[in-house]
Amino acid sequence: MRGLAGLLVNGLLIGGATITVLPLVWMVSVSLMSPGEASTFPPPLLPGHVTFANYRELFAHAGMGRNLVNSVVLTIAVTLVSLLFNVAAGYAFAKLRFAGRDRIFKILLGALVIPAQVAMVPLFLLLKHLGLVNTYGGVLVPAMASVFGIFVVRQYALSVPDELLEAARIDGANEFRIFRSVIVPVLRPIVVTLAVFTSLGTWNDFMWPLIVLNDSELYTLPVALASLSREHVQDNELMMAASVLTTLPVLVVFLVLQRYYIQGLMLGSVKG
Amino acid sequence: MRAVGAAWCFVAPALLVIAVFFFLPVFAALAMSLTDFDIYALADGRNLRLVGLHNYAQLLQTPLFWQAFGNTLYFVVVGVPLSITISFGTALLLHSKLVKFPAFFRTALFAPVVTTLVAVAVIWRYLFHPHYGWLNYTLSRIGIAPIDWLGDPHWAMPAIIVFAVWKNFGYNMIILLAGLQSIPEQLYEAARIDGASMWRQFRHVTLPMLAPIVTMVNILTIAGYFQLFAEPYVMTQGGPLQSTVSVLYFMYEEGFKWWNLGSASAVAFVLFLFIFGLTALQLRLARWQSAA
Q1: Which of A207, B11, B13, B199 is the most exposed place for a label (fewest CB within 10 A)?
Q2: Which residues pair with B35 in a beta bridge?
Q3: Hey, are the CB atoms on A123 and B25 less than 8 Å from each other?
Q4: Which among A6, A115, A223 is the nearest to B272, CB-wise?
Q5: What is the H or E stretch that residue A246 is in?
Q6: A152 Cβ partners below 8 Å, 6+ apart?
Q7: Is A150 in contact with B14 (Cβ distance < 8 A)?
Q8: At residue A264, does pLDDT exceed 80?
Q9: How far is A32 from chain B (nearest CA, A)?
Q10: Element (H, E) at B15
């Protein structure tokens, strides 16, 4: 009985994992096929002969190298700046006293129910006014701080003992010094979690970059891939290579740092 | 006293960004939805007029808006229960003591969540291909005739739902799994001593303990599914016969293709109010249930 149940549980999981992973593995496989090879029936599992021609084509003619650079630069910039702003604010909301602190925090939490898309039309006009449409700034500037980021840092920072801060203050350290040399080291785990979460989210983001970037030179990878896939509907092998280029970096980052990512997901889920 | 000044230095940058680039646009969206902001106003602000609720009235008379709303509702009503059922099922499997490699399975089942939506949508567009796709090939092996998944107005939305569930279910799976793991083992022991069967343990221990998490998962998933956009953008471009135009897809085209920015803002607000209403309703329902 127990053996049978074990077989069933593991069998179902193997089936489920095959369905989730196989399309990703197959994407890599097709990306290594020669043009037209995948458009046959039945669909081939493995390339007859491995070629990197599709990747060369992406960089040489489709200009994807440029898009890769855009994605990397924007992801790093958004992650660094938003970490600085969110960690500082989250810490202050948890541990420092200032007028209206709790009221402001409540208003911020209330904002979580508003979908980002509600703000998009006026945000576009605002950024156009500031000359930021069709620049890196158009993606970076609105992402420099987030309620979610402030929230998770605050929740974590609440558990930092006040005595730690008092001790540093008695030693005569000013608030900025305390933040840099006492707080940031203590908050390290949540900083890493937030960094992983923010960078994957920024890399994968689609709708806003699609709206604010018009020039294909400035497209991030997802936007470039969407536009490419509308033009090259038939070039499956090329599209798969572009998909690998777009999604493999985030998959690798996730596999290496998944402990932190899962942690962030649990923290984020508390927001409801 | 110095500490107060420092506190403001810490919060000011983040608050300024959120105020200027989120709260301001949200209020502006409400204001804009009451104007006839279009491409002429974009060129010259003097062409802007207040039109009251005209945009909203106009929307209700636009067949494509109703279609987009219906399509989105279809996506939510079928997709959310399907997604949460699968999340719950896989969470229960992963929670079982009989699993051989729980960490491996957890990672494998979760992998689609972290992938780039656009990239996996491109893969699935190919899996759904009527001639060369794996899905039709597999179905043909069990004697089912090929289906033009993304080309048939009856099948395009189901295909998008299958894809979205594949992409998303792992997220709730992790949250529900954490919920299962947080249920104290003593509760099950006590139930077993009382002679409760597996099913009764599930019904009277697992489900009630998990209820708050399930409510939260429902609320977040429904809100998320209402924001359907990239899937139809990449896979079907709203077609065939506009069967996959979602509310946000409609908003995007209205705003950034036709530059009817007043009307697009109204669409965004209708969507927001709808999500907000549903969230409030679910919270009230959950409170009423836990009180009963």
Answers
A1: B199
A2: B50
A3: yes
A4: A115
A5: helix A236-269
A6: A90, A190, A193, A194, A264, A267, A268
A7: yes
A8: no
A9: 14
A10: helix B2-18
What is the chain A residue with the closest CA to B277?
Answer: A113
Tokens of B40: 């002429």
CA distance B254 to chain A (A): 10
Identity (one letter) of the amino acid at B281?
A: L
pLDDT in tens, B60-112: 999 999 999 999 999 999 999 999 999 999 999 999 999 999 999 999 999 99
Confidence of residue A269 (pLDDT cuts 50, 70, 90): low
CA distance B117 to B115: 6
Q: Which residue of A has its CA nearest to B5?
A: A98
Token pair in block for residue A207: 């709708």
Residue A209 has pLDDT above 60, yes or no: yes
Contacts with A, B 4-63, CB within 8 Å: 4, 6-11, 13-15, 17-18, 20-26, 28-29, 32, 42
Interchain proximity B24–A126, CB inside 8 Å: yes
Q: What is the pLDDT of residues B209-251, one digit of tens each?
A: 999 999 999 999 999 999 999 999 999 999 899 999 999 999 9
Q: Which residue has the tokens 């001639």?
A: B131
User: Out of 3.30.300.20, 3.40.50.920, 1.10.10.10, 1.10.3720.10, which CATH number does the structure's domain B33-291 have?
Assistant: 1.10.3720.10
Interface of A with B in 64-103 (CB under 8 A): 84-86, 88-89, 91-93, 96-99, 101
Sketch the domain layout of chain B as residue ranges. Answer: 33-291
What residues pair up with B50 in beta bridges, in sequence order? B35
Strands (E), B2-88: none
A222 neighbors A204 (Cβ within 8 angstroms): yes
Separation in Å, CA B57 to CA B28, B52, B262: 19, 10, 13
CA distance B257 to chain A (A): 10
Q: Are A240 and B7 within 8 A, CB to CB?
A: no
Q: Look at A24 and B178 and tell me if their CB atoms are within 8 Å.
A: no
On whether the A61-269 domain is CATH 1.10.220.10, my answer is: no
Token pair of B279 as six digits: 């969230």
What's residue B1's pLDDT?
Answer: 46
* Cα nearest neighbour of A31 on chain B: B123
Residue A198 touches partner B, C-beta closer than 8 Å: no
Largest interatomic CA distance in chain B:
78
**A246/B14 touch (CB, cutoff 8 Å), yes or no:** no
* Residues of chain B neighbouring A124 (CB-CB closer than 8 A): 255-256
Would you state the pLDDT for residue B290? 79
Place of tokens 């994407």: A27
Question: Rounded CA gap, A145 and A143, in Å?
Answer: 6
Q: Is B35 helix (H, G, I), strand (E, B) or coil?
A: strand
Q: For the ranges A171-175, A237-241, B230-234, which has the lowest average pLDDT? A: A171-175
Does B201 reach chain A within 8 Å, measured CB to CB?
Answer: no
Closest partner CB to B111 (pick from A21, A124, A223) = A21
Q: Tell me, what's the pLDDT at A231?
A: 83
Residues B118-131 have a mean pLDDT of: 94
Q: In chain A, where are the structural domains located?
A: 61-269
